[in-house]
Amino acid sequence: MTGLSLGSLSRGTNAIKARVAIAILALLVVGGCGSSSSGTTSGNTSTDPFVAIAKANADKATAPVTTWDGPTTGPKAVSGKSVVCVSEDQQNGGPAGVCAGAKEAATAIGWKFQVLDAQGTAAGALNVMNEALALHPDGIINASISIDIIKTQLEQAAKAGIKVVGWHATTYPGPTADPPEFYNVQSDQVVGGQVLADYVIASTNGKAGVAIVDWSIFPIAVLKVNSMKEEIQRCRDCKILSEGDIPLTNGSQEMPTYVTGLVQKYGSALTTLMFINDGYADFSIPAFKALGIGPAGPPVMVSFGDGSASAYQRIRDGQYQTATVPEPLSLSGWQMIDEMNRALSGQPPSGYVQPVHLVVKGDVNADGGQNNIFDPNNGYRDVYKKIWGV
């Protein structure tokens, strides 16, 4: 699969000049300050002005999420509905967390709810979608099954009047027409990739040497990687040393060998491994230990995944992983039920796109990490219940 073009994201000359001016000001402001909340290195000595920009972006992304910026109005709850959550894999923290959040929200709104597990395979995805259609629910929650895999089933759902709301089902947030899904819930994956890269740039004072692991059969993974790469390339002295295309399902077999080869080839030039899912970090730990690399590295690992429990624990304990860009899984489930209620009410989707958040050791306990999940403390549950009138 070819990578998606991110040319539309390129900044023009005027924008670059503006960012340089901001960076110079930022250098004056942050010079001599102590450690930031993002865990990025203070006292930046790089002469590349983009490093200060990256640091400011990373710091902003670690700010506690305490203010609700989503919808505050919408249709009252439609009563007596049934919803099926088709999960790409209940062993994957992302789909499992989203289905759990949706179940919590469905209970609050008064709907019947059940989960079907595709167990991480395309065949399983087709099976659970067919099973869901046979149940004749009012709605289907699609937790991370690519719409390209279940195109025929989505068309059948539309003909049967079954509403479908997705999470990470396609590349971008928002509705899709072909195949039809009322709304795809997720954060902006381009911004997430940029924020993670900004953290890497800032934490290495603009001297990052990175290896990036992709899973290119998924367009959303390609989008994440292209965004990371484009941002890293804005840093004058940063280098992309390697790009690996490894299915997460093969991670336990392939990642130890891949990591060992990287360290042997690049040595100290390799500062950071960047992943599109926290699961790759799980499979890399044995290689780090076998190579005699201490928990503080280098290299260290960062990820733009779902914010797994193991990732939070590693970040909290300073064990090889220093950052993750998670999705707010419970909030995503609640938003999916809200979008479903809008669909069943004959109203348009809310259009809400969740902001990107960066979790590092400095805020892993202060902002949702204490329970190994990023759960914004912004009152979203009460807001949605007020909208629904329950």
Helical amount among residues, as a percent range?
40-55%
Main β-sheet, in a few words? 6 strands, mixed
* Name of the CATH first level of the largest domain: Alpha Beta
Query: How many domains make up the coordinates?
Result: 2
General description of the model:
The protein has two domains: 7-63 and 189-324, 3-Layer(aba) Sandwich (Rossmann fold); 82-187 and 328-354, Response regulator (Rossmann fold, 3-Layer(aba) Sandwich), CATH 3.40.50. Helix content is 41%, strand content 15%. The protein has helices at 13-30, 49-61, 93-109, 122-134, 151-159, 189-203, 219-232, 251-266, 279-290, 309-317, 329-344, 380-388, and strands at 82-87, 112-117, 139-143, 163-167, 174-176, 181-185, 209-214, 239-245, 272-275, 300-303, 321-324, 359-360. The strands form two sheets. Strands 2-1-3-4-6-5 form a six-stranded mixed β-sheet, sandwiched between helices. A six-stranded mixed β-sheet has the order 8-7-9-10-11-12, with helices on both faces. Helix 2 (49-61) crosses helix 6, helix 3 (93-109) crosses helix 11 and helix 4 (122-134) runs parallel beside helix 5.
